[in-house]
Each structure stands twice: as structure tokens, then as C-alpha cells.
Amino acid sequence: MNTRLRQAPRSRAAATLLLGVLALGTLYPLFWLFLNSFKLNDELFEQSWKFPEAWQWGNYPKAWQYGLGHFMANSVLVTTVSVVVIVLLSALAAYVLTTQRFRGRGVLHAVILGGLIVPPEVSLFPLFKIMKTLGVLDTYFAMILPDVAYGLPFTVLLLRAYMMVIPLEMAEAARIDGAGLLRCFWSVYLPLCRPALAAAALVQGMRVWNEFVFALTFVGRDALRPLTVGLTTFGDSLQTDWPVLLAGLVISTLPVLATFLAMQRQFMGGLTAGALK
Amino acid sequence: MARILNRLEPYVALSPVLALLAIFLYLPLVFDVIYSVHDWSSLSPTWRYVGLGNFRLLWNDPIFWHGLRGNFLYAAVSLLCQVAGALVLAAILESGVVGRRLSGFFRVAFFIPSILPITVIGLLWQILYQPDGGLIDQVLQAVGLGGFAHAWLGEEATALPSIVAVSQWQWTGYLTVLFIVGIRAIPSEIYEAAAIDGAGALRSFWHVTVPGVQETTILMALITIFGAMKVFDIVWVMTAGGPNNASHVMGSYMYQLAFRDDRVGYAGAVAMAMFVLSAIAGGLQIWHARRSHS
Prior knowledge:
The complex is a heterodimer.
Chain A: H1 9-36, H2 41-45, H3 59-99, H4 105-114, H5 124-134, H6 141-163, H7 168-176, H8 181-192, H9 194-210, H10 213-218, H11 227-237, H12 242-262, H13 264-274
Chain B: H1 2-36, E1 38-39, E2 48-49, H2 53-59, H3 62-94, H4 100-111, H5 118-128, H6 135-142, H7 156-184, H8 188-196, H9 201-212, H10 214-230, H11 233-238, H12 250-260, H13 264-293
Antiparallel strand pairs in B: 1-2
Helix pairs in contact in B: 1-13, 2-13, 3-7, 3-10, 3-12, 4-7, 7-10, 10-13, 12-13
């Protein structure tokens, strides 16, 4: 590391200053959010960078009462189901593509990877029609099904990259012992892939938790809304009480932030293994 | 019999993934094509085939061109900040100029905005951009630059640039982390050799880091362009394309046409334009990744 560059103390100071200013600029809006969620509405309209005159802890229970708990429960449900299904289906597909030889493998692999370049934004109206035909509009499935489908290509890519490193003999040995394809997948490959599965689950969990467009378009009932869309209705009804709205934003940020800070290594590892936004 | 079953196993195992992709990724694209050559709204039960009529309409639609310009602005600024800027940031973080701990802290700090829910980002910045009660105008006023205060999201000239700025805040740290992975793959002997040859920090950045991460840079540039062509959610949350259509990108315009104006056929044509442009960037990305693997 140190051999890479021998800096003069001055350039060291300059670099530290630059990084410090950028980090401050990046984090300050979040700090501002936190600070102002403890204020009275009037305080916000003056110099909003000041500390609150009296910390209004009451903003938080008030925000919660707008139904945040309910939105959050919906987010947990949709995220959990989607992530489990994405990871299992992708792992199975990656396993088959990595270990089995069969006619059409190349084509099917290309069909799956091709999904990487299909942006859901392009397909919202057709998807709306498909959901309607399937009779799942305004149900949890209207979020779970597309959340799952659009998470598959990336996850297959990620898990396949990991499985390629596992020696093929592992699969062959298990097959010779009489284990079927599913058995071999379940009891040999899945346990070996645990770190990759965890990384994939984290990346997809974040993605689904933050998903906004499907929930906005395919679900109209407040009772089913996840946090991301729930917050917008919450924002509409709180146009006049910003600190409470800000408290709601803090509450919704905490789960993702805590998860990320606790597992940043696995999370960043999962992202960089496949590199896609 | 058992052998036939064995042969079918791989297909059966792949079928759930293939079915989901067929129904929710590929079928909608087919529908987009069909919609785009029809004049159709979800209220009227009749479809009228109009051939390329919707595309002719598109060609003469100033809002569409304005939106497309928005996508290009998005792409250009993002290439500057999220690719060039992130590369420089990553190089500084990896150069050892700040200690390992501190560099780890900066990396996490820059990354954090990319994990936040889009609605949180949208609502937070809506408030920061407010003409009264918003931090930005308050600061401008406090330092005597009140003349530069704007209703940032409410004025036609500033709405889209303000949104683009938020996206840079959100994503630059994310790409920085991806670049860090690329830089770490460069063998440290090359840096050592450059240092022995008397190369300073700038020279070794230019002659070792930049060529060393060339593959990553191309990939990041393509990902960024892909993202800029399909961008939708941040625009919809912050302005929904307003005021007076000024901050539209293709995605928000398409959404408005399909779900607000009920001009489904025409929205299909916009969707096709969006798909073609993003698929070019995405396709190059896959082609490039495969080529550099083999």
C-alpha cells in the first residue's frame, strides 16, 4: 500500500480535505433530516441548520400513527417472500446451467442473461394488463411476481459465477452415489454456496425493499402498500407538518441503514460480483 | 423411462425461471410493439391499426424530444460525476494517501445514499429544494446570495438539473466502490515499478490506474448510459415531469401518457424508443463482458 505512492504531507492534507468536504456534502442532508425531524414546524422555516430549541420527541409517535407500521409490515412480507423465491429459483437455475449438459443450454442461458437488459420501466403498461388478466392487480402478488422476475437474471449471474469455482467432481460424485439432480442441488451445492446465497439475498432484499414503481402502479389499496409508496401518501397528507414527515422518513430509513451497516462487507461483495445498478 | 425423465430434469428445473421471465420480461416487450402500431386507449374497446403513425407522431412531438434531451443531459452529467468522478475518488481512496480506517469510513459514507429508498430521497430533496423552509435557499440567503435562490423544482429551467444533481449525490459513491474493486485487481508491482521510475501520484494515476481499470470504466459507462435512458422513479417522485412538462424524461412522459392521459398506443411508441436506446447500451455491456471473459 505505502509503496504505491509516497506523498508529500501537503498533498496528503489536500486529499484528506477534499474527501472530508465530499463526505460532509454526502452525509449532511441525512444529518439535516435527522435534526429537523425533532423540530416544530415554525423552526424549520427559519434557519433550518440550527439545532432544535426543544427536541420534539413526539414527532416520532405521531408519524408512526399515520400507518407507518402497517406499510412496514407490508414491506417485510413482500421482501421476505420475494427474496426467498428469487434466491431458490436462481440457485437452482444456476446449478443446472453450471453442472448439467443438455441440448439448448447455451440458448436458455442467453435467454436468462438477456433479461439483464430489459428495464421494467419500459414495460409498465403491458405489465399492468398482464396483472389484470392474471387477476392479481391489487394483491401482494402484483408486487411479488414482478419483483421476483426482474431479480432473477442478476441473481443467476451472481450465483453461477460462484458455482463455476466449485469442482464439477462434487456434482458427479454425488450423482454416482445415486443422488438425483434435486438432491445433489439441495444437499451438496446449496450448503457450499452459502456465502454467495447470503450476498444475493442481501442485494435482492435491498432492491425489493426499495422497489417503488411496481407498488405504485399495480397496487391501489392503502392496506397493501409497502413503505416506499405509503410514504408518498403520507407526504401528501403531511404537506403542512414537515417535521413529522421527516420523522417518518427517518423511521423508514433506519431498517435499510442498519442492515447495510451491519452487513456492508457481504452487501458490497454481492454487488461487485455482478456489477449492475 | 427413467432415462427420459433424467433427460428432462434440467428443463424442468429451469422452467420456473424461464416461465417468469417469459411472462414478466419478454411478453411485455411484445405487447409494447403491438401497442405501438395501434391507436388505442384502455377505455375504448376498439383497436385501430395505424402502422408507424405513432412513430410519426413521436417524431413531431416537441415534448418527446425535450424528454429525450433530458435523458441525454442525465447521461452526460452522470458520465462526468459517476464515471470520471468516481474513478478519481476511488483512486484517491486506494492510493494510501489517507489511512486504511479513514478510507473505509469515506467509502461507506459515499455509498450510503445509494441504499436509501427512492421515496425518502425524493421527499427529503423536495423539502431541501423548497423556496421557503428549504435548506438550500436558506443558506443562499444567509451568505448574501439570495439572488441565486430559486423554487428549484418549480421553475422550468432548474427542475431537471436539480433532479439530475440528486442522482449524482445518490449514485457516485456506489460506482466508486465498483471502481475500488477494479483498482485492487491491478498488481501492486506495476505501481512499484512506476514509483521506482520516479512517477508521482498524478502520473501513476494516468499511466497505471486509468489503463488498469479500462475494462471497468467501459462497463461503468455503459451501465450509466443504460440507467440514464430508462430513468423514471426519481423524476416521477420529485416533479412527475412538471412544471409544464419541463422536467420530463422519456420514462416519465411514457408513464404520463399511459396512466394519466390514457394514450396507450402512443405510450407504446415512447416505450419502444426507450427500450431501443437502453438495450443498445445494455447489449454492448453484455457483449463487452463476454468478450473480455473469453
